[in-house]
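Standup, Tuesday
Yesterday: got the pipeline producing structure tokens again.
Today: sanity-check two examples.
Blockers: none.

Example 1:
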Amino acid sequence: MEGTVLSTRGLRKSYGGREVVAGLDLTLRRGECYGLLGPNGAGKTTTLRMLLGLTGPSAGEISLLGHAVPADARVARARVGVVPQMDNLDPDFTVRENLVVYGRYFGLTKAEVEAKVPRLLSLAALETRADARIQSLSGGMKRRLVLARALVNDPELIFLDEPTTGLDPQARHVMWERLRLLLREGRTILLTTHFMDEAERLCDRLGVIDHGRMLAEGTPRELIAAHIEPEVVEVYGEGVEAWHAGPAKALADRAELHGETAFCYVREAGALVEALKGEERLRFLHRRANLEDLFLKLTGREMRE
């Protein structure tokens, strides 16, 4: 398909008789940010490793930038940037040296890499820390440096595996700003994340997977409209269990009790909100449905280890 930079068909992977990726079909279009969402153990990391040719599939086909993977994975990876979950910067090198050494892995000359360094430092907002040791950087600085390092080979496609995990809100917003810049440049991004607000802000399309299968795919708005009632009322306080068993069942299109909170999903919340105003022991929050509601409905609320 013209404009496609990555595609899979019937992708499968099994370990010890247990299938962790089960017939996954996936397509990334040039210039988009695609989010791959799923709980722990859903098969996201295994999928990424297969897409990069680091793990061989048990079955299925992968095309990465026009190259068959894993057969031509090495050639394809030369045009890909990767930001892993965990920072793997070399602590023995400075910020600048981490960029230069990494660039040499792609066959670039020292002069070619050094010509790229000023722009990469600027993108990472690390111009004043070029000669700093890695140990002196904050978590946000390290993540921005890993992103800058992933761009040293001028990749067409960037894999981002949970890029803002462990960052404070300010650092996350800076990272999002840098990613938007890359998208405006026409880069293509494949993103995995556990932050639903991150997915909603950055991603043109999303795929929700669990147990290695695609559960739903589309734009954030399409997915919410297709799977969730448009309004949500969260109710909590003394007596919420009894209220959930009675009025909530009568007034909500769908109501769920989790812990000490009743989640009421409705097409129109007026009657429910008016009824709650007379419940002195209960408090409530009325909001629009979001990606987190979608995610929890499709994958469940139980903890995953």
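Example 2:
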Amino acid sequence: MTTLEFFADGPESATRTVLLAHGAGQAMDSPFMTNFAAALAQASADTRVLRFEFPYMRDMRASGNRRAPDREAKLLECWREVVASECGAGALYIGGKSMGGRMASLVADELGVDGLICLGYPFHPPGKPEKLRTAHLADLATPALICQGERDTFGNRLEVDGYSLAQSIQLCWMPDGDHSFKPRKRSGFTESQNLARAAAACATFLKPV
């Protein structure tokens, strides 16, 4: 069993918990993760948002040396441990940024969580649209919300609109957003607006308790 540490936003007494994992290269206290967690906790009353790190990221933090993410099996086992530690009373949602959300999507049905939230889902590696990571999304049973930038290089709006995704999956598009929802200046949109849009969509997605 791994020693788990969390960053928390929202009240400890909340009856709804959202567990969020980071992306491949950014820790749980990256600006994106920190700002989104705070925005979601503010947008959704009675919700506690918990961020955690995969083992390889904890090792990076301790050593100061960058390293590749753990293999998928280890990442999934970490998700199982995290959910087991937080599966008390109340609704439980899992998800995260990019790789963190993708790993959550692979165990969501198995773990029987109430919902899945993916922030910038990596539908394929940048520049390799033929290498899709969508097979399990075709029959996903868990209610899911994917917040995606319209020009995300891991899957833009034109590409994703052509995928066969389960009816359980909702999509919320960030106008002109990249993989971290950041738009270009000339678009007329701002990063903070897109972050607020994603947090509001997630707050609406969460079931009343």
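Quick observation on example 2: DSSP finds six helices and seven strands in the chain. The helical segments are 31-43, 55-63, 72-85, 99-111, 157-160, 191-205.
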